[in-house]
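=== RUN LOG ===
request id: a7f3
mode: sequence -> structure
chains: 1
length: 216
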Amino acid sequence: MIIRYLGHAFFTLTLENGTVIAMDPYDELYQYPQRRIPADIVTMSHHHYDHDGIAAIVSENQSIDTAGSHTFHSHGVTITGIPAFHDHHQGAHRGNNLFYVVEAEGLRIGHAGDLGHLPTQEMLKRIGKLDILLLPVGGKYTVDAKEAVQVWQMIQPTVCIPMHYRTQYNPDMPVTTVDDFLTAAAGETSTMPLMRATAGDMSERTQIVVLEIEGA
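=== RESULT ===
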């Protein structure tokens, strides 16, 4: 599996069989590069414009925006949407959110979307053991850096990849940079342009991987 970061909360997972899973795509967002990519499966954690930019996907696809288990036998993929909230007030301020768990090629990848609170014990049970956690860390609209560390410690993935933070492409967004999370986490960190992950090599990874923004 190849994991690429396209900025904000937008990732693609490319499987060995050629299947492409796009997660939380944006269309037009601040100064981020405008994306036009093919994908077979698209997940959207909630319907805010910066997470459901389906116009960025140029191919025929199967989209997911609901809770529950979704199995794509022809692609060898199962994706489970776990209900969560976009804020600390059970969605009263910003609405609902879905935490997706992707199971493919013997790996379990969690995309937290715009998680705005610490996960409940029920959520943790449903999330289970993750190889890779894609976690928002910038605050304001999601958990902040310190809360993100708590989420990371509660879920205990093998690898955590931070997302949804301030970069040179969204300098006016009222969120913090990734550095606040890295400082608070104090974990072993590496930076790379993309991540090639297999079920057999996860133990060799650093605790936190910062992915460079694809094509930036």
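=== NOTES ===
The mean pLDDT is 95.
The CA atoms of residues 2 and 196 lie 5 Å apart.
=== END ===
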